[in-house]
Amino acid sequence: MEKIIVSKCLLGYPCRYDGKSVPCKEVMDLQDRYELIPVCPEELGGLPTPRIPAEIVGDKVLRADGADVTGEYILGAKLAYTYAAENGCTLAILKSKSPSCGKGIVYNGTFTKTLTKGDGITVQLFERKGINIIDEKEAGNLK
Questions:
Q1: CB neighbours (10 Å) of residue 69?
Q2: Are strands 54-57 and 60-63 parallel, antiparallel or unpaired?
Q3: What is the SS3 assignment for 94?
Q4: Has this prediction a pTM greater than 0.85?
Q5: Is 90 exceeded by the pLDDT of residue 143?
Q6: Cα–Cα dist 107/29, whole Å
Q7: CB–CB of 104/98 below 8 Å?
Q8: Which of 47, 117, 109 is nearest to 77 (CA)?
């Protein structure tokens, strides 16, 4: 059975910054056909749940209170990649808009819920390492 790395919050784990999950039926329905490997890069990087929201600001990840958590995001991305590599994953389904897992669009760093083009820290690493990424909206297209 093919293995896919998946953002834990999409599988119902309460690991988001707000301590909640965002279970996605289209992702959870894939469990019959794929082995889903849950990861939360933020938690892997040592950040607590719940946690102060963070957004990408230039080449850093800053919390809403101004604290720099770039190192934690980089560490979490590296550890998530390690899980992907150890499990032979070539595909990841990651949570849209996240400073870790957002692909193509993320919050713009003003903490006003404004979106901009860009990729999260984990997405950037996965793409450099050759892992294909889709977000939860695209999960229903997998067969």
A1: 20
A2: antiparallel
A3: strand
A4: yes
A5: no
A6: 28
A7: no
A8: 47
